[in-house]
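Sample pair:
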Amino acid sequence: MNNKTLALFTLIFFTIILSSCNNVTNYDDIAPLPPKNIKTITGDNRVDIYWDPSPSTDVAGYNVYYSYSYNGKYTLIGSTKETYFIDSEARNGNTYYYAVTAYDFNGNESQLSDDIVYDTPRPEGFNQVVFDYLQFPDQSAYNFSSFSVVPYNSQNADFFFENYNGTYYIDVWKDSDIQDMGITKDIYDVDYAPLTGWVPLVEGENIKYAEAKIGHTYVIWTWDNHYAKIRVKEITSQRMVFDWAYQLVEGNRELKRADNPTTRKETYKIVIRKR
């Protein structure tokens, strides 16, 4: 072997050694920081989960976990490179706690996110129709628990529609409550049922009522302590078309989103229904 060949082999050998040393030196075993500001949007048999990106620069993606309690065991439900994830396996009436981790290109995974985030999916419906109870009494009310139109004087009527000399109303019986939340762009704009501000009962009357206005969303606190919302889409002299959402869990005010449940106070209604 001549000197030129020997020098070439020596160069290759040291290049391999240096490369190996560099790989060892550059190996990353530091996990990225977890994401923050986890938020959820309550859906019908689904929960949409959003978060702010991890501040770490080497994030390859995120893992999403759920549990049935904040301090319980968290189970991986999916991974994504985006900053949102849809839990399409969530079921109405069940409460889920969510946490998100970040992982890097070397497989290092962060701790679970700290945010206290839970959600209870609930059913919803669109383009439902009820009719004026004075003209069509058997098709004038809606019962959220059965997702069905019922007569206005049914024990199961949660609200009914009224055309009173050209002014339109959404009526509830006196053991229920209603509140106009104002103009909204869709049914999802109202996150939570309010704690106060319900329409008062007029002395001597058996119903409470709010004027029905197209584009407004109304929250209803039903006689059996459930919360629902409806958004009016169309009104004629005979009928009202609306979208709705209904929380299956008694006393749970979630109608869209759960961000910081530690600040919430639940209220309950205990009523024996009378007409």
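The longest helix spans residues 3-26.
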